[in-house]
């Protein structure tokens, strides 16, 4: 049993789908069509929790996939899209193995750098990504799916062409596709929100929150004090705490603790490492402190959580 979450780059992902990946493209973009015959391959690759160092979207055209993001399960079926942002822990739990359903999905992944080189509103995408933590899955209409299929077909044709400007052409195409997907997703989020929920937070607050969450994603295992993150962002701890609370409704320590709990649950559920080693990996001073922290946030001891998770998996 693996001890830690896999860290997967887009380059690693492309290796599993050599027929789809476009060998002469840089290692910061990936697109692959997944059919029923590939289901076992998908599970072999990402049935264990993994982190991808870029943005990834799975478009399920037909069939069904059970996907887990940050330990929360989502079922996506016909005309469904699920988006994963950098730092999330994701795994494909189950794929449709009924040949009559003929699983048909498209995986698209791109690095931050690739998206930055495109002409899309990248800052806006980062501002929206906090909502993606809670709303990564949405359903699209047949007409919208038809447009996405045209994007996929054109992308595949470009990747297999001998164009000298292949990356630049793909940048423009991906920019257009993601802007279209973002508009659909933003509309659905807006429709689901309470129209009387309050004024929209300032752009600066959103950017600071996203920068904070990006740092927490990277350093939560070892750094849990607001002073560390405030120093990284060239802000005072008091001001940073105020901004985080106003922009998200949660305090900075609450965000940090949620990432640590997610990491602890992941290790306890998907690894066989002793709890003492989990304590060491998460930089707790001793087992007693970890036990109290874990029970405070989950209502269970680490041992109880591991036992219950094993029973539920049977």
Main attributes of the structure:
314 residues; alpha+beta; Jelly Rolls; Arc Repressor Mutant, subunit A; 2 domains; 10 strands
Task: Give the SSE map.
Blueprint: E1 6-8, H1 10-15, E2 29-35, H2 39-46, E3 50-52, E4 55-62, E5 65-69, E6 72-76, E7 80-84, E8 90-95, E9 104-110, H3 112-117, H4 122-132, E10 137-139, H5 142-159, H6 166-192, H7 203-219, H8 226-232, H9 237-248, H10 252-270, H11 275-281, H12 287-298, H13 302-312
Parallel strand pairs: 1-3
Antiparallel strand pairs: 2-9, 4-7, 4-9, 5-6, 5-8, 7-10
The gist of it:
By secondary structure, the protein is an alpha+beta fold. Helix content is 51%, strand content 17%. The strands form three sheets. The protein has a five-stranded antiparallel sheet.
Structural commentary:
This protein has 314 residues and is an alpha+beta fold. It has two domains: 6-192, Regulatory protein AraC (Jelly Rolls), CATH 2.60.120.280; 203-312, Orthogonal Bundle (Arc Repressor Mutant, subunit A). It contains 13 helices and ten strands. 30% of the residues are buried. The model is unreliable at 194-200 (pLDDT under 50).
Looking at this structure, what is the CATH superfamily of the largest domain? Regulatory protein AraC
Q: Number of DSSP strands?
A: 10
Q: How many domains make up the coordinates? A: 2
SS element count, helices:
13
Q: What's the CATH architecture of the largest domain?
A: Sandwich
Distance between the termini: 16 Å
* Element order: H for helix, E for strand: EHEHEEEEEEEHHEHHHHHHHHH
